[in-house]
Amino acid sequence: MAIKNAYLQSVFDGLKQRNADQPEFLQAVEEVLTTLVPVVEARPELQKAGIIERIVEPERIIMFRVSWVDDAGKVQVNRGYRIQFNSAIGPYKGGLRLHPSVNLSILKFLGFEQIFKNSLTTLPIGGGKGGSDFDPKGKSDNEIMRFCQSFMTELEKHIGPDTDVPAGDIGTGAREIGFMYGQYKRLRNDHTGVLTGKAIPSGGSLARKEATGFGLCYYTKEMLAAEGKSFKGARVVISGSGNVAIYACQKATELGGKVIAVSDSNGYIVDENGIDYKTLQIIKEQKRDRIKTYTNYVKDAKYFEDKNGSKGIWTVPCDIALPCATQNEISEESAKILAQNGCWAVAEGANMPSTPGAIEVYQKNGILYGPAKAANAGGVATSALEMSQNSMRYSWTFEEVDKKLHDIMVNIYNNSVAAAKKYNMTTPAGKIDLMAGANIAGFEKVADAMLWQGIAY
């Protein structure tokens, strides 16, 4: 990727100097700035108002110590973070990631992406992200509760239903959200929609658990339909086996696809008869077990150990690839293997799962490419719907939420196409550049709000 505009390149050069130790964040910013060249050239008021300089800097970074006591009575210390990136169109909104890899670079990249993803939903939510380097794996429920309570004791000072509304992410599921919400309520004496992904009796939304995976498939369905294609009869490979992957597997299957492979951090399963998503739910949601145990339920399935995360899964020949594991999981090398094996569509369920080199391979080979900030926006969109239900003291049925989710994903696709066409953004293979379209559509809404509000922050 190259930023073919002197002004945008100068902004990025300054950012590199100040954030040289943050590769994921710089990667996310460079991708966006590369696609904004025609927008900045057509709209000189953006440069005059310093919109680019402001949008790449978080409004606020909160970092704090999290002390908690393990089951052996030993004090443990982790780092907690909240990146409040941009509130031009609404309160900060974004998940809390609990994983040993969490650091400022990863959270800043996620928060930056969240600005545009949230804008694309057309709902009034700004961009934020947070979490901790705490690892829930191998911890007892009581240890996780004590960590979550300590984490929220500090975080509650900085969030609120009209200020910042966190949600779940990797390592933060319904259990962790419950512990955090209970602590927030105890400290504030306030039963409000400050967290999303809550349990249904506590104000959660039906279809929230399914939303990111379902939304990914709804977006992909639109992307395929524009090319006269569909999920029907297609071989689908999905990396990961968490919430996003499980429900992408379900919806892809319901739409007529055959999901033949899923993975976790230790390896991947190949089931040529089609992955049974109900078995996947039992293994991951009820048993909290490793993906290799799938072979205990389905004897014809094969398990492949893969210490490189999901790298091996991309050697499985497929028509549609849905990366739903983690950032930068598809390298240029893996993308070339996908292309050689006849893959004709990639849509991202994880955040930034494709390296810049991989994206170039997709675009040069005419592979349909649905970028994360558009394709995986269904989760945060449904979180915003949960916020709406909390504000109204009301709840919609599963079918009502699912219909709203479907319509939002269709609109995200259509708005991305419209933005790409407006600025004549196409790939080297001559297809509509959906990555550029998503970036531009998300950016212009936020930029216009920032212009209207003046130099407010």
Can you walk me through this structure?
The chain is of the alpha/beta class and 457 residues long. Among the domains are: 60-190, Leucine Dehydrogenase, chain A, domain 1 (Rossmann fold); 209-370, NAD(P)-binding Rossmann-like Domain (Rossmann fold). Helices cover 47% and strands 15% of the residues. It has 18 helices and twelve strands. Helix 10 runs antiparallel to helix 11 (277-286) and helix 13 (332-340) packs parallel to helix 14 (356-364). It is globular, with a radius of gyration of 21 Å.
Task: Quote the CATH topology of the domain at 209-370.
Answer: Rossmann fold
Helix tally?
Answer: 18
Tell me, what's the shape?
A: globular
Sequence stretches where pLDDT stays below 50 over 5 or more residues: none
Q: For the report, how would you describe the main beta sheet?
A: 7 strands, mixed
| Classification by helices and strands | alpha/beta
Order of helices and strands: HHHHHEEEHEHEHHEHEEHHEEHEHEHHHH
Mean pLDDT: 96
- Fraction of helical residues: 40-55%
CATH class category label of the domain at 209-370: Alpha Beta
